[in-house]
Specification:
7-stranded mixed sheet; binds nicotinamide-adenine-dinucleotide; single chain; globular; alpha/beta; 10 strands; Rossmann fold; Arc Repressor Mutant, subunit A; 2 domains
């Protein structure tokens, strides 16, 4: 499945939840598309990849589509998640409540700084990275958020892969080459700002580009 389509599923879900909060029960592909700035054909094509959701003359039943998208995205369950690197960013992410609403529960913190190990942060005790394997098994950890400095990220990612972690959300400003079956998604806000600067300079009327 193209990654762009998977990315749009999360956006469809966010909009569908907003429609549901407003008391709507059905939505057309054109309304859903216009909420996201894309056309109705794209919406229909994306959703048709996963099943027959739309009904002629009715559109999409919102509750049904939300349930299906949550299942497809794998957020119909809880994901115990670790944060590795309990510095400024790690602590800020720990405080963010939005993860829990999506089923991502931060249940363990790891660092290698002796001064931080043993501290309680946000109700969790910071543990030495050497305990990752043991804790991962105990808590069923499969996801981790990586907020260590760039120079440590590669080593930590390899260690995480060897400890049963299957997905890393990497905030370190490096490209990680990791062994399968570890999946990595990297987030770099500086790159986003660079993209934004480019658009402001070269595409001033670009709007929000969500199809890339
Ligand atoms: P920080 O120095 O405050 O925190 C880093 C933490 O990682 C520290 O607690 C440190 O002890 C720990 N650490 C270092 N090596 C480790 C190792 N081998 N194992 C376990 N823990 C280790 O830094 P920060 O400001 O929180 O930034 C963290 C990372 O996130 C950096 O790589 C930074 O460049 C990056 N960052 C990315 C974005 C983004 O948009 N993606 C934004 C801000 C920061």
């Amino acid at each position: 499945m193209p990654r762009a389509v998977i990315g749009r599923l999360s956006l469809y879900l966010r909009e569908l939840e907003a429609f549901e909060r407003r008391g709507e029960t059905t939505v057309s592909s054109s309304l859903l598309g216009s909420a996201l700035g894309i056309n109705d054909a794209q919406v229909r094509k994306d959703l048709a990849c996963f099943g027959q959701f739309g009904r002629p003359g009715i559109g999409y039943r919102i509750a049904e589509l939300i349930r299906a998208l949550r299942q497809i995205l794998g957020i119909d369950r809880d994901w115990p998640t670790a944060i590795i690197g309990v510095g400024n960013l790690g602590r800020a992410l720990l405080r963010y409540r939005g993860f829990r609403n999506r089923g991502f529960h931060i249940v363990a913190l790891f660092d290698n700084d002796p001064k931080k190990i043993g501290q309680t942060v946000g109700g969790l005790v910071v543990q030495p990275l050497e305990r990752l394997g043991e804790v991962a098994e105990e808590l069923g950890l499969r996801l981790a958020i990586l907020t260590v400095p760039g120079e440590a990220a590669g080593r930590v990612a390899e260690l995480a892969a060897g400890c049963g972690i299957r997905g890393l959300l990497n905030f370190a400003p490096v490209t990680l080459t990791v062994p399968e079956p570890l999946s990595v998604i990297s987030v770099d806000l500086s790159i986003q700002l660079e993209n934004l600067a480019y658009r402001v300079l070269h595409e001033p009327n670009g709007g929000e580009a969500i199809t890339d």
